[in-house]
Amino acid sequence: MSLAPSPSSEDLALPPLRDDLQILSGTPTAEGVPTWNILDPVRHQYFQIGWAAFQLLSQWHLGSANRLIEVVSSSTTAKVTQRDVMELVQFLFRHNLTRDAQMGGSAGLYAQAEQAKQHWLLKLLHTYLFFRIPLFNPDRFLQRTLPIVAPLFTKTALVCVVTLGVIGCIGIVRQWESFANTFLYFFSPQGLTAYMLGLVGIKILHELGHAYTAARYGCQVQTMGVGFLIMVPVLYTDTTDSWKLTSRKQRAAIAAAGTVVELGIALIATFLWHLCPEGVAKSVLFVLASTSWIMGLFINLNPLLRFDGYYVLSDWLGVPNLQSRAFAFGQWKLREWLFGWGDAPPEALPRRRQRILTAYAWAIWVYRAFMFLGIAVLVYHFFFKVLGIILFVVEIGWFLAWPVYQEVQVWWKRREEVMQSWRGRVVGVVVLIAFISGSIPLDRMVSIPAVLEARERATIFAPAPAKILKVNVQEGDRVEQGDILLILESPKIEQQIRLLDQRIAALEMRLQREAAYEEDRNDHQVLWKTLQGARQAMEGLLKIVKQLTLRAPFTGLVTDMASSLHEGRWVNTKLPMVHLINPGELVVQAYATEEQQVRLAPHTEGWFYPDDPARMARRGKVQDLRQVDESQFALTYLASVYSGPVPVRKDEQGHLKPETSIYRVTMDVEDGEKEWNQAVRGMAHVQGEARSVVGQLWEHVGAVLIRESGM
Predict the structure, then answer these.
(1) CA-CA distances (angstroms) from residue 208 to 139, 146, 365?
(2) For an engineered disulfide with 67, which of 25, 62, 138, 257 has Cβ 3.0 to 4.6 Å away?
């Protein structure tokens, strides 16, 4: 027989409550309204109820809804209706607080259990994100050892810890360089072991801080264990029993106790750092005194995550189930701003409290968007490629796209109300314009990193280690082709020439006298080949001597001369002594990615915009578009290793290698302006094939998926 209430029934039979349930006084709300908690000892769960529900449950033994309403209305100031009773009955059924299920009998209980089960895919999804492994029940241990740690809860202990921390901080200020440059001895197995033990130890003390504080206020701690957050182990302590406390201050103290312990350890570690000799122990103290507690605060006290900070904020505001209630206000306020439906708030709360919950919900949404995107990238790199891509898509789809889809579904169901609202019509027009703008191929401009430089340019090096005899030019001089720039001499080459000249003379003499010497006649072929090699070597040395007179390869300007070029200075072959440019013809050299290259075509117009805002933009036209990607990177101005925008790396030989496929694009400058004195880095904006924003995004996502999946 079903115990479900029906609106058409004259009277409702109340389902009997479970005998093991307990109703305890709860924490008053921020407005001072009393509350009560229903304790389910089997699942160790608490359910908060208000004053009216408490009055109804107090007379639940009457068994009849009409009788219950009559007694409560006559004996209290509560004005309850049959609807209130029906909602309470549904609440009790939903949380299994009655003896029988809503459909009655064991079959009803079985059906209710089956409905509560998650699909295995959803269960797997939530399990890999976070799951817990309870290890032991620490309550008996906590009760036995509580008198030992009780002195740590006193003001004396607080004063001692703060005093030691202040002394340590003063010492660190006076030895800041030594503290900041503390060498971390974590490269050996012993050092790494000590670091891991220190990190685990402080996290254990963090959880004991929660546990001992709960035990001090008379709460039971039934479970301590380890949880896995994206496969990263984290300790946890079950302090659910703190819900029976009527003081929000005490509950907030339990939530914040772990962080207080870490701060105390950091203060003590700061003091001990001065007393500890160099070594592993000092490195561990440095981590505990600096980065460890900062990261702990950043994670544990972040109210946007369901860790310590969340529960502290919940108790401080006096709002249980803070996140779900805030989400309701966030959705309500968003719909009111967009459509002005005039819906009532989810709860009757003061306006200031409504604004706080709305702002908190929106902050969580923004934070979650970045957090889940980061988690998606993390799981992609953590697992092998195919599984990583699947988990990446699941993260983005389930945790980001699905909530948006659900909200849009609500808007669609109420589309008639949307169209009747002037705000809704404005939002619809804006969305339509945005969609059309994103779908129409309007973007014709392709932006690629580029360098403006002279078409003719040369860097003059010494052909061999030499000494400067004469410098004929200065920075900014104009020279003609063939003009002498510098004259060098190389005593070593001159000595080699003299020695080689003597060797050539000796070989020629042996060949001339071979008629008189049988030994020379027998070595005729060897002597002849040796003489030919010596003469070729002499030609090479004489060619180098000729090259020691450095001449201009073309007509142009001298620029960027090496500093301190003077007579008598020795130079090597790696020193760029003089740069020569022809300012008459300018060219823009750029690199396009594969996606950009397919949109470009020869003879299209473009503009070069220098990074230096003081320089003017230059107009040009694409003359050369390479169809083969660059295997070596030539424009060092654009290399990321030299603060450029193109990602490159150096190989073992020191050559620059691009990280992705890039294609050379050459533009002739056609604006008639010839003023130029150095290479200028900037961006080239070239007209290309029109693409829409949606199309570009789709192509980019598809290219990434295909590339990363190895297809």
Answers:
(1) 11, 11, 32
(2) 62
| pLDDT at residue 701 in the model | 67
* Coil, helix or strand at residue 196: helix
Residues 6+ apart with CB under 8 A from 305: 299
Q: Tokens standing for 641?
A: 């290793």
Q: What strand order describes the sheet that includes 457-460? A: 457-460, 578-581, 556-559, 478-479
| Cα separation, 283 vs 269, whole angstroms | 10
**Residues 324, 397 contacting (CB under 8 angstroms):** no
CB 688 within 8 A of CB 445: yes
Q: Is 409 helix (H, G, I), strand (E, B) or coil?
A: helix
C-alpha distances out from residue 30 to 272, 304, 319, 350, 392, Å: 43, 21, 8, 10, 42
Q: Give first-to-last CA distance, the chain, whole Å.
A: 60
Q: How far apart are CA 416 and CA 620, in angstroms?
A: 54
Distant-in-sequence, close-in-space partners of 23: CB < 8 Å, separation ≥ 6:
36, 37, 38, 39, 54, 57
Of 14, 57, 52, the C-alpha closest to 35 is 52
Contact between 521 and 498 under an 8 Å Cβ cutoff? The reply is no
Q: Where are the domains of the chain?
A: 22-117, 128-318, 319-442, 459-571, 578-709
* Degrees to nearest 5, angle at CA 183 with 182 and 189: 140
Predicted confidence at residue 122, as pLDDT, reads: 60
Q: What is the pLDDT of residues 307-317, one digit of tens each?
A: 888 888 888 88
Within 395-476, residue ranges assigned H as helices are 402-413, 415-420, 422-439
Is 510:555 a contact under the CB 8 Å cutoff?
A: no
pTM given for the model? 0.63
SS3 content of the chain, % helix, strand, coil (to 5): 50, 20, 30
Q: How far apart are CA 25 and CA 18, in angstroms?
A: 19
Give residue 466's Cα distance to chain centre.
53
Domain boundaries 578-709, corresponding CATH code: 2.40.30
CA distances from 399 to 290, 388, 463, 636 (A): 34, 16, 65, 43
Listed residue (664, 672, 581, 663) closest to 619, CA to CA:
672
Minimal CA–CA distance to 271: which of 369, 168, 144? Answer: 168
> Cα separation of 374 and 356, whole Å?
27
Whole-number Å distance between alpha carbons of 524 and 514? 8
**Low pLDDT (below 70) residues in the chain:** 1-11, 101-130, 182-187, 230-231, 292, 295-296, 379-389, 391, 514-516, 520, 672-677, 700-711
Residue-wise pLDDT for 395-421, tens only, equals: 777 777 888 888 889 888 888 888 888
Output the six-digit token pair for 149.
Answer: 């740690």
CB 16 within 8 A of CB 98: yes
